[in-house]
Amino acid sequence: MKTIIFALFAASNIVAIHSAMAAEEQQIPETQKHIAVKLKLPLDHGPRAEVTPWVNQQRRLRAEQAARAELAKSESSGDSQIK
Predict the structure, then answer these.
(1) How many of the other CB atoms lie within 10 Å of CB of 60?
(2) What does the DSSP 8-state code read for residue 39?
(3) From CA 10, how far away is CA 13, in angstroms rounded?
């Protein structure tokens, strides 16, 4: 009996968490979703890194700027198609 109650309680918690996450995802604007995506760059780090952390930071900044420029370009081209 205790196991059944525990299983029902756990299942209800999972459903509640899933619906809360889905509601939160719907509230994020579409433009923020693209920017919030974590960049996956081949950064060099570790005890025998061949480049400095500054170079890695510059790679991240360039990739972020390129992503924002691409997003702005797609938004502006999408606006012209609506008109």
Answers:
(1) 13
(2) P
(3) 5
The amino acid occupying position 37 is: V
From first to last of its 83 residues, what are the pLDDT tens digits of the chain? 878 888 888 888 888 887 777 666 666 655 555 555 566 667 777 788 888 888 888 988 998 898 888 888 887 876 554 44
Question: Taking a C-beta distance cutoff of 8 angstroms, is the pair 41, 59 a contact?
Answer: yes
Please give the Cα distance from 43 to 60 (Å, whole number).
9
How far from 50 is each of 40, 47, 55, 58, CA to CA, in Å? 19, 9, 10, 15
Model pTM greater than 0.85?
Answer: no
Ramachandran region of residue 22, left (φ > 0), alpha (ψ -120 to 50) or beta?
Answer: alpha
